[in-house]
Amino acid sequence: MKRRNFISNTSLLLAGTTLLPQNIFTIQKEFISLRPKLANRKFVSKEVERVITEVKSVIKDKELAWLFENCFPNTLDTTIDFEFIDGKPDTFVITGDIDAMWLRDSTAQVWPYMPLINKDKKLKELIKGLINRQVKCVLLDSYANAFFKDKTRISHWESDVTQMLPGIHERKWEIDSLCYVVRLANEYYQITKDVSIFDSDWDKAIKLIVKTFKTEQRKNNESEYVFSRETTSVIDSPPFDGTGRPAKPNGLICSMFRPSDDSTMYPYLIPSNIFAVLSLRQLHSIYSNVFKDEKFANECKNLADEVDSAIQKYAVTEHLVFGEIYAYEVDGFGNKLFMDDANVPSLMSLAYLGAHKNTDAIYKRTRQFLLSDNNPYFLKGALAEGQASPHTGKNKIWPMGIILRAMTSTDDAEIKKCLKMLKATHAGKGFMHEGFDKDNPDNYSRDWFAWANTLFGELILKIYNENRSLLAVNY
């Protein structure tokens, strides 16, 4: 069973909101809110509600405003389990149509709300609770990517050949999962200056993260991680008894899986290594300025410098058409894979994550490649063009890819084009999906994908704050 197949494409069930096929035309025409009734919402933030009202008021296109109203609060409306455990806030965030929490998705799902936390005490507590929950997850297993809150639950993937401890939904080793843990805590601290999150458990989790990064450099074949799944999909499990393809140690960190949860072709996944450099530099600052632990701070800095140096040496390479760009994956032997995946971190998302300015020469050249026919996962169809993912096959474009293209663009015309495509391809559902057929948006995967929904909301909010005139037109 693949992650994208849990909910059918013929109905939408979101925590008290049911959209059946016979209702679609009416809702498309009248643009009735598809949010759950107030009593059925999982979490309510007055500040988020204020932003929805404020932003909607300046969006001229009624359908675009409807999409924003449905999508932006979707994480809060439908995926939050918030409580206090042992006197500390605890927030469990499911991904949507799968009742489990991904470290990556949970951070990304709440990210658009981060600028509001100083204005909303409840929202601030929610983020603090998620930081606490992620720490618990890392301390349980730093190699796992997805978790259950109820440790008695049996995972659909219990037969995977790997160490499946109670509380683990899936154990795919992905560098970015741990980077997102750092990203959330660092952003919370930068915004609030609240150092109370940096307790002894957080310190233990971070030191385990750095230890895991260093182990997965595999300089002396010290990693004991293996993952094997009985599957007919070549991208759902690493080859060679779950150990992955050969890689020559060079300072880069191995990642057996991509942020799509697909296995890597070559073990050195470059966007995730770049993300790791960012995270390690953030840890250097935190441990220098907050913990006053110069020894560990320097350990983080030195590892960041080592990985960054290896990226420049092994991943920055001459493309036949575009000149010097980033490869997506490498193996240390000189083999390189030129592509991208719509999931974040991706090469496209480097400007979004803060690894590059969108005006940096290497990023601009890489981006030109990504939006060209030379990228095997850039698809063009009847109503849209955009980045895809091997996760959904050779014919499905990801709304997330279109959203990231708009978020990293400096061209008004390109941003408008992206908004038109997003409006034209939600299949009348009022929400973003995982992927849709390039020639038939009605053929899509995942009705309830909270990350894609809130990322769309983040895009509209970014445009509202930076380029509001783009919302004053009909698309």
UniProtKB/TrEMBL annotation:
Classification via Pfam families: Glyco_hydro_125 (PF06824)
UniProt-listed InterPro entries: 6-hairpin_glycosidase_sf, 6hp_glycosidase-like_sf, GH125
Gene3D superfamilies in the record: 1.50.10.10
One annotated GO molecular function: hydrolase activity
Domain of life: Bacteria
Annotated GO biological process: carbohydrate metabolic process
The protein's name in its UniProt record: Glycoside hydrolase family 125 protein
Organism: Polaribacter haliotis
